[in-house]
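Proteins fold reproducibly. Take a tokenised chain:

. . .
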Amino acid sequence: MNSYWYDEEGSAVALLSAVRRFCGADHEMRRRMAVGMDMNTTDLAALRVVIAHEKADDPVTPLRLARHLGISGASTSKLLDRLTGSGHVERAPNPRDRRSSIVRATDHARLQVRERLGGMHERMLEIAQEVPAPARPVVIDFLLAMAQQLEAEASSGALTVRADRPSQPCQPCPPSRASPCSAFEEG
């Protein structure tokens, strides 16, 4: 298998291509889900964060949400206005700090997420269960190492074009382009 990024062929490149395909499929699923819920992908990501924090019994404040999404306070305020207006979240007083508020997902939002992802998560669990038990630790270690590498690259600033290092002209994107992926915690 010849690859866009790698000159060599082999099972390691095939493995990276499979990860890229999974990430692309995950990204596209989130885009379609956001459209189906009449919101943009940042709104959906915010809803995911809120639900995940609720499941961990760790309510999220607007400030934490802004930091997690990497957006400004003003953008977060507009995002929360949209999600509140659509009935997906509600703001409530923060029981730990009366000066701030927390963001909670509504029953309507949880139902929409469950309806859209419940069956898919069941099928994904079935696929994961088909991986032989002795191979699972290796797969888990591989995926965690890949995630750690992506997180390290993202936080290093190496992926940001700087004025003192002009970017090179782009080559056409391959049909199987990489995209961010992560598991949707609800389900």
